[in-house]
Amino acid sequence: MPTLALAPTPDGLNRAAGMLRAGDLVAFPTETVYGLGADARNDIAVARIFQAKGRPRFNPLIVHLPDLAAAREIAAFPDEALRLASAFWPGALTLVLPLKGTALSPLVTAGLDTVALRVPDHPVAHTLLETFGGPVAAPSANPSGKVSPTRAAHVLEGLSGRIEAVVDGGPCPVGVESTIIGFTPTPALLRPGGLPVEAIEACLGGALTRHAKGARPNAPGQLASHYAPAAAVRLGRTTPEPGDLWLGFGPTPGADLNLSESGDLVEAAANLFHHLRSLDARAAPGQGISVAPVPPHGLGHAINDRLRRAAAPR
């Protein structure tokens, strides 16, 4: 089955929406990474996401919607969730909320009574969601556990022949997945991401709690080993291990690639997955990737989270 590359034109997006209605899988850009979209109400279509990605069945999916009004038809919003949605949607924020009704395929929620929702801030994603007119389940458009895609070419590298189409909207400007917040019942950080934790805590006027280590995943991106290249990843290296390729940050003479020579965390987040892919493709058998330290503040939380998962035993 050839995978179609669609342009983000009215004709291309109309065709993509029609394919979603027919139960096809369509990858599309968001501001964070490319998502692998399916009609969230269609059991077979959602099951095909897991098949295409090789994704563990207990890992829930994020449902993408065009606006807050559509999200409130699917989930109940406590006051603090409504405050966050009003402040940061559309944007790189996913909220895990109590599910309302039974319209969604149960595969989307992995059997939980909560659902992860997001309103993406990308014109192509917004137009596609508006044109489709329903909820779209969309994890990152890559084989499960591998490096997330920030360009249409990345999607085709991993999923060509497994999905029907990809809408090519160019590079994703944020480059790491959304921040995920749950309510247990107090607001809890389930996954750091493209929206800094500090901004969320400032909006709420208090600190977030943290997801317990070892707990069953109740949101995407909580597996210990995830976003993993084939090459071994070694973190916090001020010099590379002998023979390793070196991924730098800030002034890093001799680095093979640099997340951001100026130390800009936004630039680093946007480059992270692309550079990991590039170094992984360049690595010889047995050669690893040494990674320079990235400061743990702002988007550094999300970058370090992805790097730790990339480096985890597998």
UniProtKB/TrEMBL annotation:
> Where is L-threonine bound in this sequence?
T32, H64, A138, S178
So what does this thing catalyse?
A: L-threonine + hydrogencarbonate + ATP = L-threonylcarbamoyladenylate + diphosphate + H2O
What top-tier enzyme class does this entry carry? transferase
Locate the residues binding ATP.
Answer: R55, N59, T114, R118, S140, S148, R191, Y227
EC number(s): the record gives 2.7.7.87
User: What keywords would UniProt list here?
Assistant: ATP-binding, Cytoplasm, Nucleotide-binding, Nucleotidyltransferase, Transferase, tRNA processing
Cellular location(s): Cytoplasm
Gene Ontology cellular-component terms listed? cytoplasm
Job description of the protein:
Required for the formation of a threonylcarbamoyl group on adenosine at position 37 (t(6)A37) in tRNAs that read codons beginning with adenine.
Describe the family membership recorded for this protein in Swiss-Prot or TrEMBL.
Answer: Belongs to the SUA5 family.
Query: PANTHER family attached here?
Result: SUA5, THREONYLCARBAMOYL-AMP SYNTHASE
Which named protein is this?
Threonylcarbamoyl-AMP synthase
Native species of this protein? Answer: Rhodovulum imhoffii
